[in-house]
Amino acid sequence: MKCPNCNETLLMSEKNGVEIDYCPSCRGIWLDRGELEKIMERSAEHYSKKESYEADQKRYGDHGHNSQKKHPHKKKESFLSDFFDF
């Protein structure tokens, strides 16, 4: 399949049981029917558990005011960053 944006051949990756097509050239991400819903369901399941929330807080750190001053250009990460780590 070709990228609708730049006509480059899309690559496929599987993340947590969801197939994601991505463009290595423009870094566009393309989902087939139902894949966004799967990602949203898994995200909701993940964050509905207190232990998952606490584990993510330890893994990704506190993104409060103090950490923003230390690293103003650092992008926030979350559970969804595992899907989109291209």
From TrEMBL:
Pfam families the record matches: Zn_ribbon_TFIIB
Domain spans labelled Transcription factor zinc-finger: 2-42
InterPro entries: TF_Znf
Ranges of compositional bias, category Basic residues: 66-76
Protein name per the record: Zf-TFIIB domain-containing protein
Annotated spans, Disordered: 45-86
Basic and acidic residues composition bias: residue spans: 45-65
Organism of provenance: Pontibacter locisalis
